[in-house]
From TrEMBL:
Flavodoxin-like domain location: 12-199
Gene: wrbA
GO cellular component terms listed in the entry, alphabetical order: membrane
Protein's organism: Plantimonas leprariae
Keyword ATP-binding appears in the UniProt entry: no
Family under the similarity heading: Belongs to the WrbA family.
Enzyme class: oxidoreductase
Pfam families linked: FMN_red
Cross-referenced SUPFAM superfamilies: Flavoproteins
Protein name according to UniProt: NAD(P)H:quinone oxidoreductase
Gene Ontology MF terms: FMN binding; NAD(P)H dehydrogenase (quinone) activity
PANTHER family: FLAVODOXIN-RELATED PROTEIN WRBA-RELATED, FLAVOPROTEIN-LIKE PROTEIN YCP4-RELATED
Alphabetical list of Gene3D superfamilies matching this protein: 3.40.50.360
Keyword Flavoprotein belongs to the record: yes
EC number(s) reported in the record: 1.6.5.2
Upper taxonomic lineage: Bacteria, Pseudomonadati, Pseudomonadota, Alphaproteobacteria, Hyphomicrobiales
Length: 221
């Protein structure tokens, strides 16, 4: 039986949705820390499900979407298969993840059927406008699809001092207010920790020959 490829940098996919840029900033912080740790990182922005008329109703939404879409490709099923680890980022919308991120998850049926995401490391992060605005429950809600896909769910826990100052044991987060203030430095530090930790655990699974993305094709299907 051909051996899994245990060489090369750990591959992290950061897939997020953001209307106003807050989740994008946490995504970039996690991605930058992962790159500094030696990982190959793809940052992808889930595309709009809300129609153009809805996006025009709030000042700045359409412009922010256009800016981000010029910077980041849309996530694909291939990105998910490529990755050794996936971090999902979303705003909190009435205590739930954004439809746009869910829409990406809902396209992963073929990967579920093949079991090709099973064994990949997964984590989540979220933003909300207000304290107790839902970021913890939204982060936890992302654990469910990760479980159904057979992923190795990696909470942030209190695995770094950064997690005593920001985020939650479930993942990085930021409370950005109604005007979408910048996340605090402590929030960025929690996101960076999550990026580094995700890559470190994924790297250990790659080295152990236990990563589905590294197995020869015929073994995956
Ligand atoms: C439909 C909708 C529902 C929202 N519900 C809540 C909520 O229940 N509690 C909260 O704190 N913020 C809520 N927000 C605010 C978003 O969580 C906030 O704008 C988002 O986290 C900012 O992230 P972004 O800058 O990446 O878009 C809601 C926003 C929208 C558009």
């Amino acid at each position: 039986m051909p051996a899994a490829d245990t060489t090369g940098p750990t591959r992290l996919l950061v897939v997020y949705y953001s209307r106003n840029g807050s989740v994008e900033k946490l995504a970039e912080a996690a991605a930058a820390a992962a790159r500094e740790a030696g990982a190959e990182v793809r940052v992808r922005r889930a595309r709009e499900v809300a129609d153009a008329e809805t996006m025009r109703k709030v000042e700045g939404w359409a412009e922010s979407a256009a800016r981000q879409n010029a910077l980041y490709e849309a996530p694909s099923e291939d990105d998910a298969e490529w990755a050794d680890a996936i971090l999902f980022g979303t705003p909190s919308y009435f205590g739930a993840m954004a439809t746009e991120l869910k829409n990406f998850l809902d396209r992963l049926g073929p990967q579920w059927k093949k079991g090709s995401l099973s064994g990949k490391v997964g984590g989540a992060f979220a933003t909300a406008s207000w304290p107790h605005g839902g970021s913890e429950v939204v982060t936890l809600s992302l654990y469910a699809p990760m479980a159904h896909l057979g992923m190795v769910i990696l909470p942030t826990g209190y695995t770094d001092e950064a997690m005593l100052e920001a985020g939650s044991p479930y993942g990085a987060s930021a409370i950005v207010g109604a005007e979408h203030d910048d996340p605090r430095e402590a929030d960025f530090e929690a996101a960076r920790h999550q990026g580094r930790r995700t890559v470190a655990i994924a790297a250990a699974l790659v080295a152990a020959g236990e990563m589905p993305s590294r197995k020869p094709k015929e073994e995956k299907e």
